[in-house]
Amino acid sequence: MGYAELVADVIRNVTTTPAADLEEAGPGISHEVYSKLVPFIIGVITLVGLVGNSIVVYVIVCQGHLKTVTNYYIVNLAITDIFYLVFCAPFTASLYATTSWLFGQFMCKFVFYMMQVTAQATCATLTAMSIDRYYAITDPLKSLKTRTPRVAIVVSVVIWTGSALLAIPVAVYFNDVEFADGNETYQFCRATWPYPIFYPGYAVYCFVMLYVIPLSIIAVCYTIVLNRLWKTVAPTEESHAPVHLRILMQKRRVTRMILAVVLAFAACWIGVHVMSLWRGIDPDNFPKTNMVVFVYQVFAHLLSYLNSCVNPFVYAFMGGNFRKQMVRAFPFMKGKKNSATDGPSGSLIKSKSTQV
Question: Up-side HSE of residue 224: CA atoms within 13 Å toward CB?
Fold first, then answer.
């Protein structure tokens, strides 16, 4: 059970569980509540995410600041979030309100295929950013030959191509099927794998490929990078530091910002993967009407969407240059106090081609 399959089954479970079973499981929730509340929350997340990530792309690309390797990866990450919110969020949100898939066979395959593609592209982009940070900090001189915009473009193309190919099983085996529950019949989009072993197998595959391996690589890279930076950079005032020390402190800020993005990803996706493994490996003992599990499923699903709108806030709070360039792009955002935009430079956008 991969990410797309988990989302499909989570929605099927919460939209087809009889109201009597929910009331018996525990008070405080009903079909009417989550059929209105969950789509509303997803709608807010989608709106915020689209606006925030579009601003990131506009400020970096349209304002002419797409000159550093880090910025290329940040734009790629923003695009994956935009695609996820545009092609996936509205359709899955509608299932909470309607309880049936209304969009036919083609959209069933396309929506959940894009869900898997963007999930894989997000993981790969974060891993590439972390490896890029590793080379930038541990071997800054030699990395100048490989850390170029052209290489970043090639890596991004490879990420999207690989993600598209690895998600083909979702496009092949997701189908618009009829689901019967007592006297009720629903149309639902879900995976119909040819062999039973594929259900737990795909769950393990996605957990390892989309969580364990990326985060393991990221953890190793950042352990080395943070150790190097915190040993090299002395706790001195940047304004009185030599040029090389200011550059190191600038690299520290960029690294800290990307680390925050990675930690947000890890926190937002752990719930989905735990539920995916549980449902995939032990479906017979999965408590479908347990109130705690029921709420956890919905919460994990919403948290995975939330990850697509948090990154712009990380850039805004931790990226001094991003705030400056955003104010330049949108002058009406400039307030009386400029302290918010006068933060330390080098956190996200550099108008010069200096590689950080």
Answer: 15
